[in-house]
């Protein structure tokens, strides 16, 4: 019967091999690209057509998309700027429909999407016939047009001008930092990363991001030639991308960006440290969760994912920021915005479906055949 343990080991090896195959088929991870999503431009053409594959956004089970709102968000779950808008929508209790843009197939550069946003960037919000690009502009639009009744303001108007000015100040201070630049810089200079990278920024994804970064300008020029209507904008974007890439290759330049980030967190830590006594549980600027908190939350999440939390707040570096991040992860808007590990695995599983089916069949056949040979060996020994 000594053959049986050997057979079990073989099954285990098959299982491990399958897991590795699913994990390291790099082409299935390119949908995670989170680059080039700031400062959107747009065209005024209607987008009533070619908007298929609408899927429900990640909301609580009790919440259903309300098409009467007319809000449709084009975004990607792992996009730094998309996440700001998704969190704002949840904070404002706005129901919306979600159209996920497949970056694997460069869907953001397909002709139909370039008619919506000629820069080929997400997020973009459609409100009936209105098209609003750029996360900052979208959030301002939501604030201006959906702030009554059960839809709370992200910049309170009833707490005085000082509070409003503080919120605007911190929002601008935080949004001055580009999450995508920090992400790419950490990949180009991994020696500055002292923490552990988290999903989605695991090994294969990081490799894909670096490949995309290196070829981004060339790809943009190719897309520009194929889309004359957006050619000038895309060529300008390609030139800017090339300049940004060259700058980020210089470690000294990236260290300057990290220093600016440190200075920002110094101000945030100082502000949070003043929240004592009756205002201990305040958010960044007031007792209400504001647009400044959304900017801070998404930045903290990205820095944590790329392994820079130890530099900026973890392990007592900035204890008030550390506690703030712990608290904010308990908010429903955070849970409904940031994809979980399960969501990541589920997405990979779905994208790998043909491979999984094929390899699974092969594995079953291998197990049956292997088992038969073991049985034969036992019977005829």
UniProtKB/TrEMBL annotation:
Keyword presence, RNA-binding: no
SUPFAM superfamilies: GST C-terminal domain-like (SSF47616), Thioredoxin-like (SSF52833)
Superkingdom of the organism of origin: Eukaryota
Domain GST N-terminal: 69-150
InterPro entries: Glutathione-S-Trfase_C-like (IPR010987), Glutathione-S-Trfase_C_sf (IPR036282), Glutathione_S-Trfase_N (IPR004045), Thioredoxin-like_sf (IPR036249)
Ranges annotated as spanning the membrane: 355-375
Pfam family, one: GST_N_3
GO cellular component: mitochondrial outer membrane
Segments forming domain GST C-terminal: 160-349
UniProt-listed GO biological process terms: mitochondrial fission; mitochondrial fusion; protein targeting to mitochondrion
Keywords: Membrane, Transmembrane, Transmembrane helix
Sequence similarity: Belongs to the GST superfamily.
Record's protein name: Ganglioside-induced differentiation-associated protein 1
Organism: Sitophilus oryzae (Rice weevil)
Taxon lineage: Eukaryota, Metazoa, Ecdysozoa, Arthropoda, Hexapoda
Gene field: LOC115885679
């Amino acid at each position: 019967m000594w053959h049986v343990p050997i057979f079990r080991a073989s099954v285990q090896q098959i299982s491990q091999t399958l897991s590795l195959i699913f994990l390291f088929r790099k082409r299935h991870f390119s949908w995670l690209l989170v680059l080039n999503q700031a400062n959107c431009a747009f065209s005024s053409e209607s987008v009533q057509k070619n908007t298929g594959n609408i899927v429900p956004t990640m909301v609580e089970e009790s919440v259903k998309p309300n098409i009467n709102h007319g809000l449709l968000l084009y975004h990607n779950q792992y996009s730094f700027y998309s996440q700001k808008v998704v969190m704002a929508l949840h904070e404002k209790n706005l129901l919306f429909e979600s159209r996920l843009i497949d970056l694997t197939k460069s869907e953001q550069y397909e002709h139909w999407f370039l008619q919506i946003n000629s820069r080929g960037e997400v997020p973009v919000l459609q409100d009936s016939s209105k098209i609003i690009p750029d996360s900052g502009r979208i959030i301002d639009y939501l604030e201006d047009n959906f702030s009554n009744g059960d839809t709370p303001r992200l910049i309170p108007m009833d707490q005085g001008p000082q509070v409003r000015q503080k919120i605007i100040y911190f929002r601008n201070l935080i949004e001055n930092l580009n999450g995508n630049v920090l992400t790419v810089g950490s990949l180009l200079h991994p020696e500055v990363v002292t923490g552990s990278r988290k999903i989605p920024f695991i090994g294969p994804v990081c490799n894909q991001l670096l490949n995309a970064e290196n070829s981004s300008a060339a790809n943009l020029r190719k897309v520009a030639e194929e889309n004359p209507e957006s050619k000038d904008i895309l060529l300008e974007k390609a030139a800017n991308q090339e300049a940004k890439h060259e700058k980020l290759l210089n470690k000294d330049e990236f260290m300057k960006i990290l220093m600016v980030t440190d200075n920002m967190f110094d101000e945030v830590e100082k502000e949070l440290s003043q929240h004592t006594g009756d205002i201990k549980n305040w958010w960044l600027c007031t007792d209400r969760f504001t647009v400044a908190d959304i900017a801070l939350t998404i930045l903290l999440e990205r820095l944590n994912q790329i392994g820079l939390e130890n530099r900026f707040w973890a392990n007592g570096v900035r204890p008030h920021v550390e506690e703030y991040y712990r608290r904010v992860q308990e908010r429903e808007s955070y849970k409904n915005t940031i994809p979980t590990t399960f969501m990541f695995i589920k997405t990979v599983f779905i994208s790998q479906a043909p491979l999984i089916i094929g390899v699974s069949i092969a594995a079953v056949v291998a197990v049956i055949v292997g088992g038969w040979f073991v049985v034969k060996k036992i019977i005829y020994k």
